[in-house]
């Protein structure tokens, strides 16, 4: 089975009330539907990852999708460590990518 992605705007199955909202990710505007999570908006717009790990520089986005793994964390309106898969997107949200910072090691 091949992976298949349909942008929300092209999905033939539309919600009864398609109330559109907009957010920005690092200044880039994205559009979604009221009720979607931030991760839902980004995935529907084709954004599959939005941060990289400090070890290995691996891309991260949604892994579990249920609020357990914290792979999807972003900064939303100045608040860090928000799980994009759990936070319902609000019109005008300013979302910024957030990267791991290694703690300072003291000996
Ligand atoms: S994808 Fe796992 S907490 Fe969001």
Automatic annotation (TrEMBL):
InterPro entries named among the record's database cross-references: 2Fe-2S-bd_N, 2Fe-2S_ferredoxin-like_sf
According to UniProt, the name of this protein is 2Fe-2S iron-sulfur cluster binding domain-containing protein
Q: Which UniProt keywords apply?
A: Oxidoreductase
**Single Gene Ontology MF annotation:** oxidoreductase activity
Superkingdom in the source lineage: Bacteria
Species classification? Bacteria, Bacillati, Actinomycetota, Actinomycetes, Micrococcales
